[in-house]
Each structure stands twice: as structure tokens, then as C-alpha cells.
Amino acid sequence: MNYNYSLIEKKWRKKWEENPINKKTPSKENYYCLDMFPYPSGNGLHVGHWRGYVLSDVWSRYQILNNKYILHPMGWDAFGLPAENYAIAKKMHPAIATAENVKNFKRQLEEIGAIYDWEKEVNTTDPEFYKWTQWIFLKMFENGLAYEKEMPINWCPSCKTGLANEEVKEGLCERCSSVVTKKNLRQWMLKITAYASRLLEDLENLDWPEKVKKMQADWIGKSYGAEIDFEVEGLDDKIKVFTTRPDTLFGATFMVLAPENALVSKLATNDKKEEVEKYVFASSTKSSIDRMTDKEKTGVFLGRYAINPLNGKRVPIWISDYVLVDYGTGAIMCVPAHDARDFEFAQKFDLPITPVISKDGVEIELLEAYTEEGVMINSEQFNGMKSSEAKNVIADYLEKENIGKKTTNYKLRDWVFSRQRYWGEPIPIVHCDKCGVVGVKESDLPVMLPDVESYEPTGTGESPLAAITEWVNTTCPKCGGPAKRETNTMPQWAGSSWYFLRYTDPHNKKELISKKAMKDWLPVDMYVGGIEHAVLHLLYARFYTKFLQDIGVVDFKEPFTRLFNQGMVTKNGIKMSKSKGNVVSPDDLVKNYGCDSLRMYELFIGPPELDSEWDDRGIEGVYRFLNKIWRLVSTNKEIKQNTDLERERHKLIYDITTRMEGFSLNTVVSGFMEHTNNLLNLQKQFGGVDKKTLETLVILLSPITPHIASELFEMLGHSTSIFDEKWPKYDKKKMEDAEIEIVIQISGKMAGKLKVAKNETETEIISKAKEIVKARLENKNIMKEIYVPGRLINIVAK
Ligand code: ANZ
Ligand code: ZN
Q1: CB-ligand 1 contact for 339 (6 Å cutoff)
Q2: Where in the chain is the domain with CATH 3.90.740.10?
Q3: Contacts of 19 (CB under 8 A, 6+ apart)
Q4: pLDDT tens-digit map of 286-303
Q5: Domain covering 222-410 in this structure, CATH number
Q6: Is the beta carbon of 397 within 6 A of some atom in ligand 1?
Q7: Any idea what the Cα angle at residue 536 is, between residues 531 and 540, rounded to 5°?
């Protein structure tokens, strides 16, 4: 009988459909294993996408065998730019394009043999779902966390929409790689900054990759420092700066304000006004990428001076676009001796450079900024102090003298939450001339996204929704007078910031989720997805969770207890993607080798957390290996268990279990390969293998290759599902080899080796050892014989 994967896979799919393998029993604990849900693109899945879904399916099945009742849902992140851009390109309504793509995705996911609970499917574009996305926004609005602001935002001229800072990568639009510019628009903002410290502190206890935690911490970007006031000569105004280096204050020889700083026009002296205005305008039209990467520093002197509060020296005030208006106070004190950017600026404009820290307290001429710690110089009463101490001492002194105060600053900015696009959740807000900005009544949710003829972006900064007057014109929920709907929509992140909650109770019409569903399933036990979501999605989801905790919807502070980031699949060294033209479709591979072979090969290509190169020929080897297992079991003549077989079985369980637990799934596969060879050898040696060993092997295999494992389990005489079995347990004592190897030394030098039975006595062992090294002991006197049990014998001889 040959391994007929196609028959077997069909057979077991059907059985699982009729008889789901994930069953609730009183003894089972719940376990929530979640995939990052995909946006259903038109391209379908390639083997790179498969990798993540295989990982989470293997993990879910492994949990079932560990007596868990699992929630393993799937859904669609279907609002947003990618879906809309695709629909525009195909000249289809996004709703229709999305529905088609979802269908195709589902078919492909079923090919994986994954056990998704389709009863729990969610779709962010379903009004029953986005009703709650809007509800969360309303609650944030009521709690002062959603607010409007006129501001220069990142604007992608190609996508014709505003972008969050998070969606701009090195000055380019994350979606389409166009250069991002600035545009002044009224925006809805979410006050994520109110949660900055909690978002930072709560990272600590998460079972997440350290790398991801660090990326989040860096993004939140907490800096300790001080705000210091500089008086302006001849005016009552003060300039407040933020610095992380109060220890360098004596070296502050000039100041720089961001061009957008509100004080600029007031501080500029008359003879400088024209030049200043020109510069301010030029920076406003510069793209952020230029501002960040321009090599030559630029700037203009305002014609005015401030006073260094410690040494009373006059410092000229400049503007330059290397200072950002929205970080710290939008103004800095410049210490060219110890800051690289300030050094460059000082050199370019010939400004004084005064070192205030040196390595060993001796002043030397600087060829570049000295940014290390050291000993204070040129700093009056603080001279000789370590700069690391001076940081605090000077900050304390400034506080005492009322010149400054210690503060912390976060890089994290409030979240630009509106998009000027059609394909998103309408923001549930109404603008009334009398009452101002009013939230839609909860009972009127969802605010349905109207059907429109033209959903292409207008490019004017207005959403296409603004053109639908019958939708825009409404009545004010407060006064009943005429009012207009908010026409901006939410960003794609809105739905994905909380979807994982809804899976636990997707059909609840009364609440976002019930308390029972929350207690039963949340937080998520294991979250599997790509590293590209390390910052944004995970940060937003954490923020939403904390907010929902604050308003009593959930009772935990972190949504994802354990996180696993799978690496990318590459082909010829670059990420597999349709646009790179290097995708491998799973369809033919499944046809030619079966789903089990492809599942196993996906794991075998490399450590799951690392990027791995795809090699089409590799699957052949895995296929041959499954055939080997097939033969091992199907041709076996059953014999009674003996100690060799028992030992091999426990070793097998041990290896597979420890590697599974460590999520080292590629070595799980290689472990199977090793142990299958061992079993084949034992089969040859003893004329067969015992039944228990083979049962163990196929149970261990079942999370990875569920179809063939189920078939072989049946072949071994079982009529129940393999997934009703328990994950096998190992006994370390039974793994020990019957023979041990002992090293023989003569006077501490290696002289030979000896294999002995475990129960042999010391005298027997020593006499055997002496027999082996007899030749080297000739003409020598044995002074001493030292035996370290189970390890070595040292014969001391002269
Ligand atoms: C004086 C100084 C001396 C500084 C020195 C650094 C080194 P992080 O760690 O990123 O918080 N800074 C403050 N606000 C800024 C803004 N809006 N745009 C550009 N730069 C700004 O860095 C804080 C430091 O970055 C601050 O400390 C300030 O320069 C600069 F030897 O002040 B420092
Ligand atoms: Zn009103």
C-alpha cells in the first residue's frame, strides 16, 4: 500500500468537518491562539503567507493534545487603503472586490488543513462589526481622548490622504513609496500619549520577543531631562528648551528654534524679518525626508540674543529645520562641543564652541563633538565633578533657582486618526452650528457607510463622503437642529486595534463582548504574526485594551500574553511578494506532494522566527521522509516492547516536546528525521517495532502532518480521533542508556575508553580498564586508582 496523500487528505478533511476535533470537555482549559488577520488582497496566498498560518495551526493542534479547548479564529481586515487601492485599480466597488477576495482566501486557507472556527469569523467592514469600532471611538470622545485639531499632517500626494507618523517610512509613504509632504488639515486625533507611561511600563511582564519590546520602547521613546528657561535680551519673553543634558549648560553658546515655533516672528528683529520669513516658508514646503536627511545644515539668525542662565553670557538665537516643532518645546539650547548636530551648525556659521566635559579634566581642541561622559570643565562651581553626576546636580540647582525643572519627554505623538478616503468606518460625529461637535447617539450606531458612485479620493483634502449631501445633512443629536456629519473616515488600524476581542463573542448585539466571553477566552494566549506589526498594530491594540480596561469593558491590561513573530519567506534573498514577481504558489505543491508535505516543509526551511529562503526542491525530501514513515508503520510486524525500544520512545518524546515548547519547529522536524532512522534500525534489528512506540510517533507527528498521522493511527487499530489522545509524556530515567562510556586516564592523561553496563561494580570496571591500557602500564608502579562513577578512571602510575 502506497502513501496516497490525496485520498487520505480528502478523507480526513471530511471527517473533521463532520466531527470537529476541538471539543469542549469539563477537564479542558480554554486556550486562545490567534493569527494576525489578513487584509484580503486580490493576490491570494503564497507559500510565505502559509508559513504563519501553518505555525499557528500546528500550535493549536498541539494545544488540543495538551488537553486544551482552543479558540482559533480567522477574519478579515478589509477596510483601508490597500483594499481601496485594489478596488480602484480593478474598477470595482471595494465591497465587491473584498467579498471576492475573501472567498478566494478562505478556499486557500482550507487547503492548509487548518482548523479555523468559521462560526466566529469577523470582517471589519461588516456594519455589525464596525458598529463597535464606532462605539469605541464615541467612548474615547466622551472621555476626552478623541479630539479635533488643525495641523500640518503628513500628506501622501499619491494616495491623496493624510498619514500617521507611523505610516511614513523614512519620509516615504508606507503604502506606495511616494515622498510624503505636509498639508494643513482639520484632523481627528486620539490621545495615545495619555497612555505613554503605561504602554512603556507594562511591556516588562510580556512573554514577547525582546526585540519587539525594545522596538515598542524606542517608539514610545522616554527621555529624562530638564526644561530650562532662557531670558531674551530686551523682551519679557522666555524661551523654554528641553534638554537631556543639563550637565552641558555652561557650553550652550547659541540657541535654535524650530521654524514653526510661535515665537519666531516676534523674536526676529526688523532687519532680519524678510530673510526669516523666506526660510520659514521654504521649510514648510520641504518634504520631511529632506528635512531629515539634508547633509548641509541651514538656518537664519533672528538678530536677537538670549542669556545663558548659568554664566550670564549672551547667546544668539537662530532658527533651523533640524529642530522639530512638535518634540520637547520646539526649541533647543545648543552645545556644539558635545552634540554632533550642533557642532556641524556651529562650524557652518562660525559660532563659538566651548567644551565643558573632557575625558580626564584637561581641555583639548575638539575636531568633532565629544559625546561621552567625563569630567566637568569650564563650569565654575561644578568643575571636577563627573558629568554623569552633574546632570542631576545641575538640574537640582536649576529647580532651586527657579530657572528650570526636571521633566520626562516621550517621542510618542498623538495619533492622527482621520483619513480623507471612502473605504473606512465613518467617524460617528455630527457638526452642529449651535452645539458644536456632538457624538452620534449610541442607539443610532452604526453610522452606515453610504453607497457612492465615485469613491476615488478627491485630492482636495475632503473625503468623497463630503459630496453625498443627503448623507452629510442630518439632525443634531443634542438640539435636533440641522447639522452635518463628519465626512472623514477612520484609518485601517481602527478595526484591527480590537478585533481579537470580538472573536470571543462575534454575534453579540448588545455589547462589544459579554463578561462571560471575556472571562472564558481573554487575553489572547498566543499571538502569531509578522514582525512588520511590531510597532504600530501592537501598540494600538495595547492602547485600545488599556482604554477598554479603564471603562470596564475588559479586566486585563495587556491583550496578548505571548507573541511569536514568524520570519519572512524569501526567494533569491528578497521577500516573497507579488510585486517582486518571486511568489511560489502553494496550489501546485499541494497537488504534487500533498498538504502534509507542504506543512512540514514550511517548518523545515528554517527557524520559524528567522527569514528563510524558499527552495522548490526541498519539499521533495520532506515528501520522501513522509513515505519513509508510512513504510515504517504500514509494513511493521508488531513485536513486544523491549528496553531498547522503550528508551528510544522516551528519547523521541523528550526531543519533540522540548523543541515544541521552545517553538523550535524546524528542529522538531529534524528530530523526527533522526528518530525515524533510529526506529528503522531497531525495526531491522528486532524484526519489528512495538505498537506503543509507533502510536507515540504518530501522535507526536499529528500537529504537523495531521492527515497522514490520523491515517496511520487508524491503521494501528484505532477508531477514535488521534486528536482525542493526550500528548505523550517522557520519563527521564527511561531515557538513560544501558551502557555508559567511561574515560580511562593514566596519571590524568587520556589513555582510552571503555563501555560498561550500568550495573557493573567498581572492581569489575577497574580491572577491565587496566586490561585495556595494559601495554601502557608495563614497567610502571600503580600508586592509586581513582574512580569517578559513571565518568572516568584515573590510574596514577610512575
Ligand atoms: C542640549 C544638549 C547637549 C543635547 C548635548 C544633547 C546633547 P532625545 O534623547 O531624543 O530626547 N532636542 C530637544 N528638542 C528637540 C527638537 N524639538 N528637535 C530636535 N532636537 C531636539 O534628545 C533630546 C536632545 O535632543 C535634547 O538635549 C536637545 O539637545 C535635542 F551635549 O540639549 B540636547
Ligand atoms: Zn445642535
Answers
A1: yes
A2: 222-410
A3: 721
A4: 766 677 666 789 999 999
A5: 3.90.740.10
A6: no
A7: 125
